[in-house]
Amino acid sequence: MKRIIASLALSVFCAGLAFAADDIAFKAKNGDVKFPHKKHQQVVGNCKKCHEKGAGKIEGFGKDWAHKTCKGCHEEMKKGPTKCGDCHKK
């Protein structure tokens, strides 16, 4: 039974990777932000780091959330953009 549950969980995880968009574009006042979703999945590995309640849209997502969570993670991992112009392209 444990093997069945483990294989189902792995299947759901792999399906999420297969169907996830490669890049997501967000409109912003000071320049659009292109988000490489697939790359983040490969680097972070744990979807719940961003999607606390599971796959799908992020609850509370917006400027404040992104600046705190995304920029904070980049600073913590010491990789990825942390300056305004690195994310916001005009």
From TrEMBL:
It comes from the Bacteria. Heme c binds at H37, H40, C47, C50, H51, C70, C73, H74, C84, C87, H88. Keywords: Electron transport, Heme, Iron, Metal-binding, Signal, Transport. Residues 27-68 form the Class III cytochrome C domain. GO terms for molecular function: electron transfer activity; heme binding; metal ion binding. Its cofactor is heme c. InterPro entries: Cyt_c_III, Cyt_c_III_dom, Cytochrome_c, Multihaem_cyt_sf. Binds 4 heme c groups covalently per monomer. This is Cytochrome c. It comes from Geobacter hydrogenophilus.
